[in-house]
């Protein structure tokens, strides 16, 4: 009891005496960067000034990346984010209201589609505005849902449903305020799980981001991260594991086993598991939390959509015991 009182006094002293001093010394942007770093260590906040010193195109395309090329460099332990208006995905309210009829149809209500009672799988998108190479927008971030990772999520949910799974697919935009994407998606997941406690598997579906400095670079990346299955060109995929999750051992085991199964069934379709030392990526929120990257900004929507049926087959086989 005495220890708790001492702790409370210390916290009170910090709030009353120290925080006001810090607040006066920092501007709003500094405070935002501090809050982002303290709340979500899986992101690395980059100053606008530092960003300007680098190649503009490379930075624009890497704002959402969890790069699949594995390296020991500290920088690659983070997801890069940029504080400022320039990183907001481009929106067009008139276009958004027209609604992408092929993806968001009458089966979606309030940004959700539930394919069966007591669904076992949740598919959501922390970076909902990630788009593929054939999106009319050039920054690979927009509300062009037809050419986005959400279209792939819709296809994956359909494929899994056809295999007997109940699926909840969320098309809520969690990254319209990009720096708050993981905090926002955590609220999205918590809300859905509170309504559907039958969910056992939560999939945060992304598309990877690669540096594309030229047309030749785009071709090189495209060819590296696509393969051919049954005469069809499909995008490769991989899984990411955040090392800061309490159940990291189980998460890593599952990711490696799913990867091994994919490689056995479809050699060349899957890339090695990527682990991030400082990340959580909300994987702790579900018994089986997966972060899956399908394709990247050099692959097309069609190629990523084609991958969804193979990912569904692999996940169906792997998790068949909890169906």
Structural summary, described in words:
40% of the residues lie in helices and 16% in strands. The protein has ten helices and eleven strands. The protein has helices spanning 2-25, 28-39, 48-52, 56-61, 93-98, 149-162, 181-195, 215-224, 248-265, 301-318; strands spanning 43-46, 79-82, 112-114, 121-124, 167-170, 201-208, 226-229, 232-235, 237-242, 274-276, 288-296. The model is unreliable at 44-87 and 92-101 (pLDDT under 50).
In a few lines, what is going on in this structure?
The chain has 323 residues and is an alpha/beta fold.
Describe the SSE topology:
Blueprint: H1 2-25, H2 28-39, E1 43-46, H3 48-52, H4 56-61, E2 79-82, H5 93-98, E3 112-114, E4 121-124, H6 149-162, E5 167-170, H7 181-195, E6 201-208, H8 215-224, E7 226-229, E8 232-235, E9 237-242, H9 248-265, E10 274-276, E11 288-296, H10 301-318
Parallel strand pairs: 1-2, 4-5, 4-6, 6-11, 9-10
Antiparallel strand pairs: 3-5, 7-8, 9-11
Helix pairs in contact: 6-10, 9-10
Tell me, rounded to a whole number, the average pLDDT.
80
Architecture of the domain at 112-319, according to CATH? 3-Layer(aba) Sandwich
CATH topology of the domain at 112-319: Aminopeptidase
Secondary-structure element pattern, one letter each: HHEHHEHEEHEHEHEEEHEEH
- Helical content (DSSP H or I, runs of 4+): 25-40%
Q: Helix count, per DSSP? A: 10
Shape: globular
The total beta strand count reads 11
Query: What is the radius of gyration computed over CA atoms, rounded to a whole number of angstroms?
Result: 20 Å
> What is the strand content?
15-25%
Instruction: State the CATH superfamily name of the domain at 112-319.
Output: Zn-dependent exopeptidases
Strand order, main sheet: write it out. Answer: 3-5-4-6-11-9-10
Largest sheet: 7 strands, mixed
Distance between the termini: 48 Å
Structural class from helices and strands? alpha/beta
